[in-house]
């Protein structure tokens, strides 16, 4: 799973990392059962509980709606985050450094040729209806992704190289591969209960929102849901890693982010995530507020512009109405040469972001890539004008006109709930206008419809990147294209190129971490030169919570990371209610520190040298995980 910001959403699925999550673990080392512990922290003892029941409730204000509660369809950050709380994955990521640790599987081992992987499934995980979770559930989940196109929409890319998946026993899962695959310890796929899901008919239409509570085996059980209002989850007291400390976690939807911030200030919610981050003004307004803590850390997301390279299906059928001018690489590069990233960082993000370059954020240092000096598309309006001239779009008065005599006018999809989209849209209109290019900024509540239909020219795009970047790389392969026009698919913006596809397959089959990282960097270089995607910034994760409701909570990475949208469930699982007498328990030695990391601390970390080392969905800064 990954998460994203455009139509389908951003996790998956997604980083700063010390280890290649898949590379190191994929070498077949049995995972050590190191698990993030629970932080301690001082807090004013004010309740976060319903007065009538005494149950402790952690309410998270979000500026995003759910696209689906089905883990086979969910692509928005909120949706994939909820899936991580509802269902266990084979493996998880350690909160300290992102290395792979046990999940539903206690260990995983490859054959000598790395083509057969055997997972030992834990015997102490139960579904919330009392039935045992077994290897058969995992095998059924993966086989459904392999054989049902409707079920493969969100996470199908993880199994395209699978040859056969079987469950010889309740605690033994065997996956046979066609070719070596370096992501076998980073399969970000929620495992579902076979006895429940085998009754589903059309997976492409089933949203898993008709019967509550929903059967799961994660740290929380989804107990109630109201469209565009809230998602309520109840603590799974039988969760094998230990019960959460809060009785309930409620994700409450706010269409207006300022209203969500106001709710936090009044104590009506415990935490505010933003969309996906607070604006600088909102963060500043909360700093110093009594009982409010602002947390900021290097983000796992990127903020980018995506061009429409010509929407098409897997069999090559063209559709949509993207401007054909964008089929020319010179035009695409000219647009990006006329974007002043520094101004955007300074004026829009007000320093709470790092200037964008490659596709993978610097938080994930092993894969982070930067263009060479001669390759860089730095701000250069004069060069942009030259490229437009060369492409046949010359100035006629104050407008760029093509050889057909038509003016070069473009449209860009903007998320109505994201203030960054709107602010940057104004700058683009000004900068491109000086070049003679017209721009219409289409701010919509749901950009998915025109995006899937290919009815756009450019779009504000963004994804959360996982410790293993395979997912966000895979959404630009030919295999990710839709099978029919306007259908939901895992593609981001219809890119399909043999050079890129060959590199993708090569990195997937490379077990050597350093060699694989080099191939991933080659892919980013190709993407950068193509002009199909232009990463403008890596926004910091800026969020806030009430210390009189939350005593302590785990960030990821623990030293200076994010709370919302993690590569795991550590934040909400570890959170301790204010006024709680006991500390959260830990089943391992990976102790975590409480969140006492505010803006000032993180700024020091960033300015002092780097980001600590450390999944997909599209909507409003929404995340296709």
Describe this protein's structure.
There is one protein chain. The protein is an alpha+beta fold and 625 residues long. The protein has 2 domains: 279 residues, Periplasmic binding protein-like II (D-Maltodextrin-Binding Protein, domain 2), CATH 3.40.190.10; 239 residues, Dipeptide-binding Protein, Domain 3 (Dipeptide-binding Protein, domain 3), CATH 3.10.105. Helices cover 24% and strands 20% of the residues. The strands form 6 sheets. The chain has a 7-stranded mixed β-sheet, sandwiched between helices. Strand 15 and strand 16 form a beta hairpin. Helix 7 packs antiparallel against helix 9 and helix 13 runs antiparallel to helix 14. The longest helix is centred in the C-terminal third of the chain and has 18 residues. The termini are close together. The N terminus and C terminus are likely disordered.
């Amino acid at each position: 799973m990954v998460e994203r910001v455009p139509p389908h959403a951003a996790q998956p699925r997604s980083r700063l990392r010390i280890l290649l999550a898949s590379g190191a673990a994929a070498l077949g080392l049995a995972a050590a059962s190191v698990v993030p512990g629970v932080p301690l922290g001082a807090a004013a003892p004010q309740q976060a509980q319903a007065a009538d029941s005494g149950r402790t409730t952690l309410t998270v204000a979000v500026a995003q709606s759910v696209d689906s509660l089905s883990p086979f369809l969910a692509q928005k950050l909120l949706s994939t985050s909820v899936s991580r709380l509802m269902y266990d994955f084979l493996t998880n990521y350690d909160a300290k450094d992102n290395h792979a640790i046990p999940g539903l599987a206690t260990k995983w081992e490859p054959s000598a040729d790395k083509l057969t992987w055997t997972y030992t499934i834990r015997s102490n995980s139960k579904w919330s209806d009392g039935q045992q979770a077994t290897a058969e559930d995992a095998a059924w989940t993966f086989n459904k992704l392999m054989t049902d196109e409707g079920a493969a929409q969100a996470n199908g890319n993880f199994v395209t190289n699978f040859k056969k998946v079987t469950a010889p026993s309740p605690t033994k899962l065997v996956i046979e591969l066609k070719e070596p695959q370096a992501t076998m310890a980073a399969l970000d796929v929620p495992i579902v209960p076979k006895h429940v899901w085998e009754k589903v008919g059309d997976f492409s239409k089933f949203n898993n929102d008709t019967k509550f509570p929903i059967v799961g085996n994660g740290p929380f059980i989804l107990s109630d849901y109201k469209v565009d209002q809230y998602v309520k989850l109840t603590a799974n007291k039988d969760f094998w890693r230990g019960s959460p400390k809060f009785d309930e976690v409620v994700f409450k939807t706010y269409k207006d982010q300022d209203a969500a911030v106001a709710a936090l200030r009044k104590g009506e919610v415990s935490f505010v995530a933003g969309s996906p981050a607070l604006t600088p003004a909102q963060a500043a307004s909360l700093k110093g507020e009594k009982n409010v803590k602002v947390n900021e850390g290097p983000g796992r997301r990127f903020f980018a512009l995506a061009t429409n390279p010509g929407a098409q299906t897997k069999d090559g059928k063209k559709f949509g109405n993207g401007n054909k001018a964008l089929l020319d690489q010179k035009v695409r590069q000219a647009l990006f040469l006329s974007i002043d990233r520094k101004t955007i960082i300074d004026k829009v993000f007000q320093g709470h972001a790092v200037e964008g370059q490659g596709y993978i954020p610097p938080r994930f240092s092993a894969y982070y890539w930067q263009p060479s000096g001669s390759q860089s598309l730095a701000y250069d309006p004069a060069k942009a004008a030259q490229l437009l001239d060369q492409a046949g779009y010359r100035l006629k008065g104050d407008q760029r006109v093509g050889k057909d005599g038509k003016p070069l006018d473009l449209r860009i999809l903007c998320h109505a709930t994201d203030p960054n989209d709107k602010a940057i849209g104004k700058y683009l209109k000004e900068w491109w206008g000086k070049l003679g290019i017209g721009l219409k900024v289409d701010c919509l509540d749901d950009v998915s419809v025109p995006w899937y239909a290919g009815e756009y020219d450019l779009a504000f795009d963004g994804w959360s990147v996982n410790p293993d970047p395979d997912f966000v790389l895979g959404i630009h392969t030919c295999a990710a294209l839709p099978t029919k026009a306007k259908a939901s698919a895992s593609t981001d913006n219809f890119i399909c190129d043999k050079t890129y596809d060959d590199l993708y397959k090569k990195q997937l089959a490379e077990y050597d971490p350093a060699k694989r990282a080099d191939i991933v960097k080659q892919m980013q270089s190709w993407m950068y030169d193509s002009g199909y995607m232009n990463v403008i910034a890596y926004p910091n994760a800026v969020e806030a919570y009430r210390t009189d409701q939350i005593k302590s909570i785990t960030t990821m990475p623990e030293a200076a990371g994010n709370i919302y949208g993690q590569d795991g469930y550590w934040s909400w699982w570890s959170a301790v209610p204010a006024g709680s007498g006991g500390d959260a328990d830990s089943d391992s030695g990976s102790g975590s520190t409480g969140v006492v990391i505010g803006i000032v601390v993180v700024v020091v970390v960033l300015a002092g040298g780097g980001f600590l080392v450390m999944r997909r969905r599209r909507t409003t800064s929404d995340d296709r995980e």
